[in-house]
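## Example record

The block below lists the input lines for one assembly entry, exactly as stored, with component labels intact.
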Amino acid sequence: MELHPDDLKRIARLARIAVSDAELAPLQSQLNGIFGLIDELQAVDTKGLEPLAHPLDVVQHLPQRLRDDKITELDQREANMANAPASENGLFLVPKVLE
Amino acid sequence: MSLNLSYASLKSLRAALDSKQVSSVELAEHFLARAEDALSLNAFLHIDRGLTLSQARAADARIAKGEAGALTGIPMAHKDIFVTRSWRSTAGSKMLADYVSPFDATVVEKLNHGAGMVCLGKLNCDEFAMGSSNENSAFGAVKNPWDTSRIPGGSSGGSAAAVAAGLTPAATGTDTGGSLRQPAAMCGISAIKPTYGRVSRYGMIAFASSLDQGGPMARGAEDCALLLDAMAGFDERDSTSLNNKQAATPILARFSEAYASNASTGAPLQGVRIGVPQEFFGEGLSADVRAAVEAAIGEFEKLGATRVEISLPRTRLSIPAYYVIAPAEASSNLSRFDGVRYGHRAKEYRDLKDMIERSRAEGFGAEPKRRILTGAWVLSHGYYDAYYLQAQRVRRLIAQDFQEAFKSCDFIMGPVAPTTAWKIGEKNNDPVAMYLEDIFTLGVSLAGLPGMSVPCGFGADKMPVGLQIIGNYFDEGRMLAAAHQYQQVTDWHARTPEAFR
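Predicted structure tokens for the full assembly:
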């Protein structure tokens, strides 16, 4: 798998990270180095194996725990809003989205 | 004989507090002064004397009332991945440079509010815990107290350097692919990454959720046992926190009982089988690290253990599997940083989308960007099955290999890292070269097993070497007890860097 400049622009767009033209070439070469490394996985025969998402699943089945459907969060509105880059009247401010 | 407070064990600090030789406020003052004198190491990101001293006064009051536990009044510091209500919580990133958390992480609650330890401040780390050298911090590299031209390891580099330099008797760290074990090895201290799910991830700024585990860093294994016992436990606020019977057994009880019956025989580890994987001793392992690790295994044999040759055939594959899974989870976890609700926001932008893209471009450093982009790629349409699911299948093979190995041994031992600490700047332009250094720690993380690093000597350049001890699931108590036996007959964990005595 080799990453071309158009692929890089596409994944940067998917990941919502602005990449300048000057950054493109060095980033492309670094990512291609990483992809070269992870390509080693392709040669492994994994037929019939289930993906392992929770590591302990290899020794015991752990069902996904669900909590009771009740309110557990404290009201932290003030403390949360204090971290907002821009807010007004208790609302987050963003650039205009609708005309 | 007066106690050297800077490098005392937690047990001797407890005794000093209980016998009124020293107060918690005096201890806090002592370590704050050392931290302020050692600012050039760049280990601390935020110190606030007032906050620390108020926790110390509360601890002194608890001690005076006879309500002290094993850790009450003893200072410690947190890796800046654990969120704290009072100190800033940055994750070593410009993205969160001014972030103040509305809540404390479970580990913070347990250690500081529950056990009554006194927080000295927040410790530097690689940005979002991504790195093996601590050079990826947005707030500058941490220096290794053994040689300040070298890296302390990462990502818990500030924690390791602070303990090694005697700026704190204990610290928290986190390990996603080796971030507790490798810096502990490179700074000559002890650390343990517990079984995945032992220590709550609530309030630990997320990097790769199926791998991230918090754990303690301190001078000796006994210190780590005390700390881990206080940190671990079921937490309903972490969806993967373990609440089975094995997880409910106190670590400290296992630690104390493990080799008690053989203690007087001179061979306390009689009957313990140590698996030595051939793949950990092949090409790429430097000769000085090999010699120190072999000598340490020999020491365990003198204590009564027997050596068994084993194989972990997919050791090399742990690198590509990890560098698919961890970036995939990181790209998902880090999508929350959009410059809207909290975190960095770009000053100039055209519209909402441009604001988000620029905020993320400015707020994230080079390594998180590489991992987010790698993760977005392996999760994208057409690659999800070939890369992400394939990596998860290889992960199962790696975890099965460990279970196969544990049929013939109790612990697995080998090096933590192929080399001792390298020079600052030596590898930070070559991400792949840096990733390859993680070869001996990644498998343990992928399998969710507990892994320790124990100081076991020095390399040719006089830099510390760490022995890795890998146990089966939930076996932390016995691992720590075996390491403690080793530390009764060796003094590598008690060595201190000359410039910080």
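The mean pLDDT of chain B is 96. The longest helix of chain B spans residues 384-405.
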